[in-house]
Write a structure and sequence with these properties.
Layout lengths: L6 H13 L2 H8 L3 H15 L4 E4 L2 E4 L1 H23 L7 E7 L1 H18 L3 E7 L2 H10 L4 E5 L8 E6 L1 E6 L10 E5 L5 H12 L4 E6 L3 H9 L5 E4 L7 E4 L11 E7 L5 H17 L5 H4 L25
Helix pairs in contact: 1-2, 1-3, 1-4, 2-3, 5-9
Length: about 325
């Protein structure tokens, strides 16, 4: 039987992948650059595949390296979770987290499950509101941490995930072919709404805002019923939606950046732990497999930082 993988080597490998540099990774893992290079040579020998290739001055992952990265993150996370389960000094207390309801629906189950297993003595209080409200809660001290849509103008947040922002319609209706496009958006201060309106105005497309709501459930219902078109991040796609592209007459939208905001708290250890769990959970989240979702192949819809949904992709029910 082959010897198990070395977790120290995997941690260094992740640091190189995240920084794109052996030098910066060496600083992060507190090793010399030569020691880091030796670790990676041994890891490549262990895997039996090249993991890096030069891309100018940076080190780019090969296809096999990208494959290993997903496993490496899971192994490192599981190692931390295992150690935490036997730590008598485990965190204890209450933490208040906020998130928009569309992120809550997609991300919270994974985040809460992982965090609760590692920190069973910590009580989570969850508030679901649109990002502007969460930013205000952070400023007023009503929240310890929030998962928000990053906006440079609203304050600093740590971006932990990027996804394409997509035009969506119903697969069962020709809503996007109407002369005056009916739209469903969040409230006027929603950055997705402003981005969509800017694109439509720039293309001289006629539209009217038919529905306005801070609830992702309402926007989704308007789209699926064929009453309106909207813009949603990839994580918010639902069965029965159609993704519209430039071929349908819809211009490209900016990426959705999902970030973490921290409030003033007297429990920084818990906040740091939850922030780490959020970042690691969002790295691991993907769409259901084909077996879980029926016969439809979800492989091309993987919710990662680099994958994008194919234009005109139809999402059937499961």
């Amino acid at each position: 039987m082959k010897a198990p993988l070395d977790l120290d080597q995997l941690q260094t490998f992740i640091s190189i992948a995240d920084t794109g540099s052996f030098t910066r990774a060496a600083e992060e893992v507190h090793r010399t650059q030569s020691a880091v290079s030796m670790q990676m040579r041994r890891l490549e020998e262990r895997i039996g595949k090249p993991l890096f290739e030069k891309d100018g001055r940076t080190n780019k992952l090969t296809e096999e390296g990208e494959k290993l990265l997903a496993y490496a993150r899971r192994l490192i996370y599981l190692n931390r979770e295992t150690l935490a389960a036997f730590d008598d000094r485990r965190l204890e207390g209450t933490i208040r987290i906020g998130t928009p309801d569309d992120y809550a629906d997609r991300f919270l189950p994974e985040i809460m499950a992982r965090f609760a297993r590692s920190n069973p003595r910590v009580e989570l209080t969850v508030i679901c509101e649109p990002t502007p409200g969460l930013v205000e809660h952070i400023r007023r001290g009503n929240l310890d941490i929030a998962l928000v849509t990053h906006n440079d103008a609203r304050g600093q947040s740590e971006v932990v995930r990027r996804e394409p922002l997509l035009w969506v319609s119903s697969v069962n209706h020709a809503t996007h072919e109407q002369e005056v496009l009916p739209m469903a958006f969040g409230r006027p201060n929603c950055i997705w709404r402003r981005a969509a309106c800017d694109v439509l105005d720039g293309m001289n497309r006629d539209y009217r805002i038919l529905f306005t709501s801070f609830s992702a459930t309402v926007i989704t219902a308007a789209v699926l019923s064929g009453l309106a078109i909207s813009v949603l991040p990839e994580c918010a796609l639902r069965p029965g939606m159609r993704v519209l592209s430039e071929a349908d007459g819809f211009g490209a939208l900016p990426d959705c950046r999902i970030g973490i905001m921290r409030g003033q708290t007297d429990q920084p250890e818990i906040v740091d732990a939850l922030a780490r769990h959020i970042a690691e959970s969002l790295d691991n989240i993907s769409v259901p497999s084909g077996e879980e979702a029926g016969s439809f192949d979800f492989a091309s819809l993987a919710f990662t930082r680099i994958k994008r949904t194919r234009p005109n992709q139809v999402l059937p029910g499961w």
